[in-house]
Amino acid sequence: MNLQWYPGHMTKAKRQMQEDLKLIDLIIELVDARIPLSSRNPDIDELGKNKARLILLNKSDLADERYNEQWSAYFQKKGFYVVKVNAKSGAGLKSIQGVIQEACKAKIERDRRRGIKNRPIRAMVVGIPNVGKAAAKTIMKRFPSILDLEDADRDALMEVDDVGEVSADCIFRFFHDEKNKTFHDLLSLSICKKLVPVVVKLIKKANVTGELNISDVESYANFCVYGQLGILTDDNLTPEEKNRKIKAILFDLFKL
After folding, report:
1. Which of 80, 103, 97 has the alpha carbon at shortest distance from 25?
2. Model's pTM, two decimal places?
3. What confidence tens digit (pLDDT) does each residue in 202-232 have?
4. Which long-range contacts link 213-216 to residues 24+ away (Cβ below 8 Å)?
5. 164-182, pLDDT tens digit by residue?
């Protein structure tokens, strides 16, 4: 028996999109700013080839602004226009019209050369329903850390309530697509930066209880989190100081 996971209403909507795309100038895609990739349908990129694209990062007020900027840059690099909005409060909505005009500038210019003026821009608004807080919370319970989530395969992701095949595939590709390597590196560095103060506290506490006797706590903490890079990339140290600190830590760790 051949089982089809794709719901009938989604198949119908996809078929209707393919027909209507012939008539439109711009695709406006609404995504959740907190989970931009997993709240997208990857089919839309294939369906929307050669069309102007606008991504609306909705609920941007609930996401970290630093990541809003990174995701904006990510989509812009793919050739999409991006606007951060909050549909509930109306924030950012006024800027959409200007961005639409910019996104369709080439089409408007072609019309102008053909003597067509003020033709309304035909846009299609798309987005996946029901991929929000419930799914995100469930994923966080199942995968407590970002590393656990990165290690998960598609089958493990699909075992989570509220996560279907499309969302599971988006999450998996986010972590394992080579094109996202730069973003992953930045994410790893951001996590390491937050870990260093935690390790510093643990070492200081162990010093107090007598479990450890470490004088250069900061260097040890950086070494624990970053390895040798934590010391090698410290611009406040001379090459000789870096060499001495690494040697001291290695000698202490391995009792050389």
Report:
1. 103
2. 0.51
3. 889 888 988 878 888 888 888 887 777 777 7
4. 216/245, 216/248
5. 777 788 778 777 777 766 7
- Reduce the secondary structure of 179-221 to three states and give it as a string: HHHHHHHHHHHHHHHHHHHHHHHHHHHHHHHCCCCCCCHHHHH
193: left (phi over 0), alpha (psi -120 to 50) or beta: alpha
Any idea what DSSP says for residue 129?
A: S
In contact, 242 and 234? CB cutoff 8 Å: yes
End-to-end CA distance of the chain: 65
Q: For residues 143 and 88, give the distance between their C-alpha atoms in angstroms, rounded to a whole number.
A: 30
What lies within 8 Å, CB to CB, of 83 at 6+ separation is: 54, 55, 56, 57, 92, 95, 96, 99
Give the mean pLDDT of the chain. Answer: 80
- Highest mean pLDDT pick, 51-60, 90-99, 202-211, 234-243: 51-60
- Reported as a pLDDT band with limits 50, 70 and 90, residue 131 is very low
Closest C-alpha among 149, 126, 161, 184 to residue 10 = 126
